[in-house]
Every structure is written in C-alpha cells, then in structure tokens.
Amino acid sequence: MPGELILIVEDNEKNMKLVRDLLQVKGYQTLESETAEDGILIARESQPALILMDIQLPGMNGIEALKVLRADPITQKIPVIAVTASVMTQDSKDIMAAGFNSYQRKPIEIKGFLDEVRRLLEV
Q1: Among candidates 19, 23, 25, which has minimal Cα distance to 5?
Q2: For the chain, which domains are there?
Q3: Burial of 94 (0-12, 13-18, 19+ CB in 10 A)
Q4: Helices (H), 1-123
Q5: Residue 58: is the preceding peptide bond cis (ω within 30°)?
Q6: Which residues, 6 or more positions from 80, have their beta carbon under 8 angstroms from its beta carbon?
Q7: Residue 120, Cβ neighbours under 10 Å: how many?
Q8: Which one of 14, 20, 51, 70 counts the least CB within 10 Å of its CB?
Q9: How does pLDDT run across 74-121, given as a tens digit for each residue?
C-alpha cells in the first residue's frame, strides 16, 4: 500500500531512477543502495516493507545478499523481489530457488512490476 518504505538495491543509475520514480509517483517512500553490502545495512536499520534487489551487483551479488538477509532475524521476513536482466530459464529457476519472493525481468514491464510490488506488500 502507498506510503510504505521500499529499499531499492541497484547499481545502474538509470534503472535506479526508473524504479524510484515509478514507486514514488505511486506514493511509496524509497531508500536506495548501489551495493548489496550497503543494502543489507540499510535493511537492518530501516526495516523496509519490501526490498527490490538487483542480482548483478559490484562485490556481493543479490543472491549472496539474500542469504545474509534471510539469516538475520531482523530482516529474514522482509519480502525481496529479484530485479534482473538475467533472462535465461535456468537463471530464473536459480533465483527463485535462492528464496526470493518474486522475480522481475529488466527492462521492467511497468504495470506488472507495480502489480507485483502491491501484491507483496498486501501479504
């Protein structure tokens, strides 16, 4: 629901701007991180309602970051959507097997993306 806090972990400036602008125009509050390591710290401190996690990040990747989030009692219940350009069937299977709540391909399809954000926030 609008007003909720969403953390975006994305290293590409254009992708970050697109996602941030889409969420903010719908009334969501956003926090941003360009690395998984910083994203984990922000998630622990701010406890967002949802995390949008790129998979290909500098340093720790999104799958490794999810493992850290799921192992921490403070962040383990936060839903996490993988947002990635990895479109191979095996990639999507690996991402979902890692424990993400959902998977969105880049470039994002705006309506489907916003519907999925709303769905996970309503759970």
Answers
A1: 23
A2: 5-122 (3.40.50.2300)
A3: middle
A4: 13-25, 36-46, 62-71, 89-97, 110-122
A5: no
A6: 50, 51, 52, 53, 66, 69, 99, 100, 101
A7: 18
A8: 14
A9: 999 999 999 998 767 677 888 889 999 999 999 999 999 999 999 999
pTM score over 0.70: yes
pLDDT at 90: 76
Q: Work out the burial of residue 107: count CB atoms within 10 Å of its CB; fewer than 13 is exposed, 13-18 middle, 19 or more buried.
A: exposed
Degrees, nearest 5: CA angle 82-102-100: 65
- Identity of the residue numbered 64: E
